[in-house]
């Protein structure tokens, strides 16, 4: 059974349709209307992907912040304004201020100073190494785009070659079918002519037999 199943799976499928050659619907409008009515009565297939189509790739699955930002951009929502409160250096609000209030204000100022120092360091690193890193990134993107475009062109060329081969094959097979159909029609016509000739000969034989019987009875 396994061998039979294997043979069936590798068996070439044969379709009884030549879409590049068949023109019955164009030659017979009534048939076209009938086919369209039958198609309208058919139940629409479910809008599901083919089992071989991979599931959609979820971007930033492990990064909810980037996922939320991507959702915001796709929804065409404006960028939320920057929170400038964190960059302010508010003084103690209580009057008179206590030592604890001044300590909190001092810690906030130190944190802001450290934050600005880190930003300055990052900007210096970006100015030193950023241009080359960005050029390298752009080069990789360009190479990836070229490879994708090349693969797309090859796929389009393969599709064109397959369609051209299918059209040539179906046209050749269609011409053979037309020739065989014409030959079949000619043979049927010849058979009908022979049958009509046989009927005429049978009638002539019957007439001659009757004539012979009449002459013999005289």
Automatic annotation (TrEMBL):
- Name under which the protein is recorded: Breast carcinoma amplified sequence 2
Pfam short name (any one): BCAS2
Asked if the Swiss-Prot or TrEMBL record annotates the protein with the keyword Amino-acid biosynthesis, the reply is no
Record keyword Cell membrane present? no
| Record's GO cellular component terms | catalytic step 2 spliceosome; precatalytic spliceosome; Prp19 complex
> Which residue stretches belong to region Disordered?
1-56
Q: Keywords, A to Z?
A: Coiled coil, mRNA processing, mRNA splicing, Nucleus, Spliceosome
| Species of origin | Rhizopogon vinicolor AM-OR11-026
Q: Which family does it belong to?
A: Belongs to the SPF27 family.
Q: Which InterPro entries match?
A: SPF27
Coiled-coil residues are 138-172
UniProt record, GO biological process:
mRNA processing; RNA splicing
């Amino acid at each position: 059974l396994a061998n039979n199943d294997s043979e069936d799976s590798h068996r070439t499928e044969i379709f009884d349709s030549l879409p590049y050659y068949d023109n019955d619907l164009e030659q017979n409008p009534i048939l076209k209307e009938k086919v369209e009515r039958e198609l309208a009565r058919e139940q629409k297939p479910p809008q599901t992907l083919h089992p071989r189509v991979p599931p959609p790739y979820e971007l930033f699955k492990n990064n909810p912040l980037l996922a939320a930002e991507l959702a915001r951009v796709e929804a065409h929502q404006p960028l939320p304004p920057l929170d400038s409160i964190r960059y302010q250096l508010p003084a103690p609000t209580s009057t008179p201020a206590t030592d604890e209030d001044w300590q909190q204000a001092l810690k906030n100022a130190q944190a802001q100073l450290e934050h600005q120092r880190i930003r300055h360091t990052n900007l210096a690193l970006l100015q030193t190494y950023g241009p080359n890193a960005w050029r390298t990134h752009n080069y990789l993107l360009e190479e990836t785009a070229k490879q994708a475009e090349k693969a797309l062109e090859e796929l389009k060329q393969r599709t064109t070659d397959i369609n051209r081969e299918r059209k040539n094959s179906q046209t050749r097979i269609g011409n053979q079918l037309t020739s065989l159909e014409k030959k079949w029609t000619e043979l049927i016509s010849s058979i009908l002519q022979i049958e009509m000739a046989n009927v005429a000969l049978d009638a002539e034989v019957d007439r001659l037999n009757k004539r012979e019987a009449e002459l013999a009875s005289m």
